Amino acid sequence: MHFVDLIKEECSKNSIKRFAMFVDMDGVLADLKVGDGRAIRNKIKGMFLAQRPVMYTINIFKELKNVPNLDLFILSACYDIEQSKNKSRWLDQHAPFFDHNKRYFVIREVDNYPEEDKMDVKGKYIKRIIEEQNYDFAYFIDDTYQMLQSAQDLLQDKIKCFYISSIID
To answer: Which of 77, 91, 137, 142 has a CA positioned 20 to 30 A from the CA of residue 149?
Structure first.
């Protein structure tokens, strides 16, 4: 597993550094089908609870959970608080190794960001978390190229971003 080996090697070479890995849910851990975006925007109740887990990627992160100087975070976008609660319940069922205190949800109705800032929001969350919690370096895995690019532009040499296809062997 190329991705797992790469991360393990980078963390072991820099064993005194603290690494944070931010993982998106939709399209990374949970299957996202054509049309699901509309259901998400329309706030269909229970929609996330019915998402099929992508066991291949879940198992990758389950293995990375054992890297001593790497902390796994969830960083997922939601339109409302109800969606964030459902996503957390989904994680409890399908990927419980993601600690509750390391689950971050960018919630549109709470964060109140304008549509034009949507691609920048996750990068700003990552920046704040790594600064507040004293991480030396971050990884970010998402299925939206523009979000990855925005995070890379914001954090420069403090982050390495991976599109979902990059972690699949």
So the answer is: 91
To the question of domain 2-11+18-167 being in CATH 3.30.420.310, the answer is no
Per-residue pLDDT of the chain (169 residues; tens, 9 = 90+): 799 999 999 999 988 999 999 999 999 999 987 666 665 666 567 778 889 999 999 999 999 999 999 999 999 998 889 999 999 999 999 999 999 999 999 988 787 676 667 789 999 999 999 999 999 999 999 999 999 999 999 999 999 999 999 999 8
Q: How far apart are CA 115 and CA 150, in angstroms?
A: 15
d(Cα 36, Cα 41) in Å, to the nearest integer? 9
The pTM of the full predicted model, rounded to 2 decimals, is 0.93
C-beta separation of 52 from 30 below 8 A: yes
